[in-house]
Structure formats: C-alpha cells, structure tokens
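Example (one chain per record):
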Amino acid sequence: MSPGDQNTLRAQRTPDGTCFDVTGNPQAPVIVLIHGLGLCRELWTQHLPALEQDFRVINYDLFGHGDSDPLTDSPDNCCHKGESEPKAASPASLSVYAKQIVNLLDYLSINKAALVGFSIGGMINRRVVMDYPHRVSSLVILNSPHERGEKLQQQVESRAKQVGNGDPMATLPDALIRWFTKDYLDLRDQPVGKNSILHGADRVSRWRQQVESKSYAGAAWVLANGVRELIKPQPPIECPALVLTAENDTGSTSAMSQAIAAEIEGAELILLPHLQHLGLLEQPEIFTNPVVDFLRRHELQESTP
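Predicted structure:
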C-alpha cells in the first residue's frame, strides 16, 4: 500500500489477516499501539484523541483477537523463541507477534515507528526492537511483566494451562479483581448514560468473548513464558524507552518495571500510585499524559529538521 493511500483507514486488513486502523496526522511521526492479552484495539479508544493530535497512529489487533484472523500453523510460526522443538498447542511466540508488526509496517510502507505496548504488548515491542532494531524509534512499555520469581511464575503458568483447555473466560472473574480497584468495580452496577462509555470490566468481558480460543491459549502461553527471553536482553535495547506501571499491579509489579528500566540504558521510569493492572481503562488520562509527553520529546524533536 502506498503512503498516499493512508490518510485515515478503518478496519483494514493485511494479507496475513491483521485488522488495523490508521488515524491522526498523516505527516507526523508514526506510533503503533499494541494491546494486551484477551483485549483488542478498542483498548486505546480513550487515549486516541490525545495521541492523534501529534502523531500518525496505527492501532491493530493481535492475531485471533478483535477483528484479526487467528494464526495459521505455518512452518514459520511453529517454534517459540529459544525452543528447539515446535510447540504443538499453538504457533504463537513473541517473535511471531513481532513479525506481525513488521509486516504491518511493510504493508503501509513505513520504515520506522514508536511502539506503545500494554502488558504482553510491552513484551512484544521489546522483542521487535531486539529482532528489528532499525524499525523502532522508541518504546513505551506499560504494565508489562519481567522476571517474576518462582512463585508468581508458577501462578501465571497455571492460569495459562487453565485457559489452554479451551475456555478463554475461565480466569476472567479473578482477573477483574486483580486488574481494577475495588472502588472502580463497585461502580459497575450503576446506570450508564446514553452517551457514556461502558464500564471497563464490561468492555474487557466483551473483548475476551471475541477472542478465538486457540489464539487466546497461545498468547497466554507466550505471556507466561516469553519473559525469559527478555531478561537482560541480547542484543541490548538501545532506543529511548519509557517504562510505566501502577503501584498495585500484582502481575506487572513496580520491581519488574524497575528491572526493565535498569536493563535499558537511559530508560525513563514512572510508577503510578493506587491503580492496578488496567488502570489505563480506569483513569486513562493518568497514562496518556506521560506517554504523550515522552513521545513528543523523542519523536517530534527527532523529526524536526
């Protein structure tokens, strides 16, 4: 697709089945938004107005999520990074998800972009810059896991095995308690006005129901096991990076974000008080403001002659 065809695109599809939107300023630096496990590109709805003012925004769905097609069992997709044997249950891996982004950039004739990733999205964007460093201008890593320690690692692997049995909804009730504050969940039963946005927990539930079950199981496996290939990354990550999490995120903790930032020279670190894993749905502006500030400083200044 030629750059002249890219002014505003909605629900477009690449040859590999990736569904995406392109919005914002067509002359501005490009950013790519990467949602989390079991979610979809609608995650960023409340963040888009601020991002679109200064950037060209590519917002897409992971394979098997939202409107994107599931992964195919092609030979290129059958092995996980660092494994000598194929993973029979799913073709998913961080490198496969990284290639999905690069294929999307190629399809849109875009050479380089800033990558903003939430949760597993913050694992995927790290893998992209490790595999394709020349394609990434900067990273924003939001609420993303790192080395967990034995106990938490076992818990995450157990949840991945549970959804691997074919029910993406199996772990959702407990997840909502981990992801949202009690005060916010208590608002869930209040009436919603005609023009009001649906409660975050209800949006998450709807997005999870849309996920193709095998794709979800594969992505859950990657979320559980993919952190191992990101610890002390080789090759090292050398682009500008912002690492951000919430104080009470039990799955992507402050200590994990501190470790991620420590392994990227010059990385900026922000720890937001009170919120949990999906604070970016609960209080979107608290996340949007530092992300936009970081991107303006690094992307806009870099593009200025």
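Caption: Confidence is low (pLDDT under 50) at residues 75-89.
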